[in-house]
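Figure 6 in text form: structure in, sequence out.
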């Protein structure tokens, strides 16, 4: 059951995303699974100043709207990711300055692992999704497929999507994604990345994935 406390927390987290300049005006959208339902920022809403009347309440399984508020045009991939990823309860689509600049480059970076935070939090492999019209079924399908086995994706000529188990994990993931892209842009393309051996070393001693 979604409560007033859930809605207020969702608004606070949306404003947090805006305060960090991950979205501006009507760019980007946010969703949060609560049981069998999800809160989704409404269509045309401004995430940085999201208001209660612009929050849509939907069934995750079907997308049925429960409170009469139309969800974001990107709700197709939000709900699709939540269905495919039972380990993730939050999805954020954002358009931060440097990551969006990278999404519009003629040559997209092949490797984003400029610092240890990227493989540790964003993902050592970041899928790059071709341009599809925002809100289209093709875009939704591509994002759902990309995030089935990854936590972050770059949408060419569009923006970024990250998913995670809670708001803090998603916020951290988005911020480090933006940090990596800022390094890539401000270096003028003259940057180095962690080697596979250095990433393996992180997995042993930082992430604890290996014995």
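Output sequence:
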């Amino acid at each position: 059951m979604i409560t007033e406390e859930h809605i207020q927390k969702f608004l606070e987290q949306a404003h947090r995303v805006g305060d960090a300049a991950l979205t501006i005006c009507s760019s980007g959208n946010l969703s949060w699974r609560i049981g069998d339902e999800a809160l989704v920022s409404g269509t045309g809403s401004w995430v940085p100043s999201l208001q209660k009347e612009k929050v849509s309440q939907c069934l995750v399984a079907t997308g049925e709207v429960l409170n009469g508020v139309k969800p974001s045009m990107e709700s197709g991939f939000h709900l699709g990711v939540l269905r495919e990823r039972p380990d993730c309860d939050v999805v954020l689509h954002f358009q931060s300055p440097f990551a969006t600049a990278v999404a519009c480059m003629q040559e997209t970076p092949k490797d984003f692992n400029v610092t240890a935070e990227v493989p540790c939090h964003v993902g050592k492999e970041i899928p790059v999704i071709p341009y599809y019209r925002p809100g289209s079924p093709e875009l939704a399908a591509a994002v759902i497929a990309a995030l089935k086995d990854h936590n972050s994706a770059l949408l060419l000529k569009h923006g970024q999507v990250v998913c995670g188990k809670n708001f803090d994990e998603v916020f951290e993931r988005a911020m480090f994604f933006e940090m990596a892209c800022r390094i890539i842009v401000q270096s003028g393309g003259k940057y180095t990345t962690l080697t596979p051996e250095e990433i393996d070393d992180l997995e042993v001693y930082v992430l604890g994935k290996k014995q």
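Caption detail: The chain has one domain: 4-205.
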